[in-house]
Amino acid sequence: MPAPSIYSMDLVDFDRPIFTLEQIREINPQRFEMEQLTSILYVDTEGHGIIGYKQVTDQEFWVRGHMPGFPLMPGVILCECAAQLAGFYARKYRLLDGDFLGFGGMNEVRFRAPVVPGDRLLIMAKLTRLRTGKRAEFDFQGFVGQKMVYSGQMIGVPIEKDPAKTTSDASESLV
């Protein structure tokens, strides 16, 4: 049985985004087929959490081949959606330095139901641990309607374009 949602669905208003796609692009570097957020709907700076969504369309790069005749959003892309949401929060609110925020790892990831074109994937993330300058850990959950479709924990680490600037602890955490 899934855990309770990180935040109440009552906080979500799809008609009143806090940050639009253009504003997300000011923080997140992903573009083209790797952009996995549509907008940010709620930010909790006191509790260090965030809610956003991805409108899943039939134009996604994976639709044709995963799986032909029954397109399922790949689990790795679901995880990328959560990482981009947590990464937006970490970069926007300066939890970590670096040129980018990268995956340091994931734990306890569970996929509970398929996500398909036409779904609106609501994603929640909440900071659970911060090692200043080194890593940020988040719990995350994804929903289609009221149903939790996936959940887990992730680690974000700072990445420098210049490898000489990367701290040894952060580089050792990269998967």
From TrEMBL:
Pfam families: FabA. CDD domains: FabZ (cd01288). GO terms for molecular function: lyase activity. Keywords: Lyase. The keyword Lyase applies. InterPro entries: FabA_FabZ (IPR013114), HotDog_dom_sf (IPR029069). PANTHER family: 3-HYDROXYACYL-[ACYL-CARRIER-PROTEIN] DEHYDRATASE. This is Beta-hydroxyacyl-ACP dehydratase. It comes from Planctopirus hydrillae. The lineage of its organism: Bacteria, Pseudomonadati, Planctomycetota, Planctomycetia, Planctomycetales.
